[in-house]
Amino acid sequence: MTDVWSNWSGWVKAWPKALAALMTEEEVAEAVKNGVAPVRAAGRGHSFTPLVESDGTIMTLWGLSGVVDHDEARQTARIKAGTTIRDLGPELFERGLALINQGDIDRQALAGAVGTGTHGTGGALGSVSAAVEGFRLAVANGEILTCNRSENPDVFNAGRVSFGSLGIMTEITMKCRPVYALEETGGRMPIDEVLSRAAELRDSERHFEFFWFPFADQALVKLLKETDQEARPRRRRPDGEIAASDKTMMRACEVSRYLPFLRGPLQKLLTSASGSRYSGGGEGEEKAKVRWSHDAFPSDRNVRFNEMEYAVPAEKGPDCIREVGDYMRKCGINFLFPLEFRYVAADDAWLSPFYNRDSVTISVHQYHKQPYKELFAGVEDIFRRYEGRPHWGKLHTLGSADFETLYPKWNEFQDVRRRLDPTGKFLNAHLKQIFGEV
């Protein structure tokens, strides 16, 4: 019996012929060249789509971890591809560096975050992939390619967001910046006010995002700005240690599963219990938290879920989330998790959801013990009407014909992919659907 591989939510499972824990770039190249197809690489399993699923070879890159070196003058760092973003923060900090931006989950391997276009929020800030200066890639014949804007530039443009379809990243060079502290403020704000002021909040803060339970009339706003104040250390919870807030959310999810008529009151209760009302730093609001950036960005997420996320044109974001919220209230389908709204700046990676377009991302979550397909199908119809592009690591139903319309460089990407992988060694069933190779 072969070992089983599972993603974080538990909904994607695979029974590969070989599940290989690799430690070096040479081992990766050998496994790619001689492994039973489809050959897929697993980071930490935080993709909800079946990107890693394979009955051939799955390689884990946990052993490829750590900062190889850094360039203080150019503010770059060479990082092994399996390094988690959580481990990377302190390693960069020791060298006086920090990531320019990151998301609110930091458990992913860097290669997985880069390969799927993972992002944080900030109207002038790009995704994690946008900060990539170069990478080393093990391609189908076992060769290692060095890719940047001057060396193999077409592979660089295609490969920054390519979810393991061109080869396996072994090392990534990231553009960084000197260490910095962030001050967190925010709280509850009426949803109509948040949406009417969204562009203002985006432009006045380095980072602005909000969470909204559709049955509540208030949203939970999170704002981060750079500060010279003293940063306080943050204790990060180890895997398996669940915070009181997570326990509350988990209990609410379980109650909602069996008593779905309570989903509206529970959402209002969870909103009202989440901090003070935010009015722009007024009296009576909670004292701001100041932390180093790598401690300020992430949240400890221990209640498991499945997720769909689309990036829509930035100017259409408020209207889109209004319509999504209205649908979710009226559809009659049971759900509890909030919607999440973030701004992301345009970039030039060919398959980035933010290619040549400033965007708003809207995320829909469903508790991992509840079915998600019906809820997500209705929301996806709305996203598509708003010219949405799906996050590659989050659930969607699109195929090659859709992507050819959504991505101006789709055909150029396909040309690079077929040149590097002429036999489809990296294509599992999910990728065959995406690329029209079924």
Report on the structure:
- This protein has 438 residues and is α+β, with helices and mostly antiparallel strands.
- It has helices spanning 25-34, 85-94, 110-116, 153-159, 191-196, 198-204, 244-258, 263-272, 293-296, 317-330, 373-385, 400-406, 410-420, 429-435, and strands at residues 5-6, 13-14, 18-21, 39-42, 57-60, 67-71, 76-80, 97-99, 132-138, 144-148, 168-178, 181-190, 207-212, 218-227, 289-292, 305-313, 339-344, 359-367, 389-390.
- The strands form four sheets. An eight-stranded antiparallel β-sheet has the order 15-12-14-13-17-18-16-19, sandwiched between helices. Strands 6, 7, 8, 9, 10 and 11 form a six-stranded antiparallel β-sheet that branches. Strands 3-5-4 form a three-stranded parallel β-sheet, with helices on one face.
Brief descriptors of the model:
438 residues, alpha+beta, 14 helices
| SS field, number of helical segments | 14
Mean pLDDT: 95
Distance between the termini: 28 Å
Strand order of the largest sheet: 15-12-14-13-17-18-16-19
How many β strands by DSSP?
19
Query: Which structural class best describes the helix and strand composition?
Result: alpha+beta
Question: Helical amount among residues, as a percent range?
Answer: 25-40%
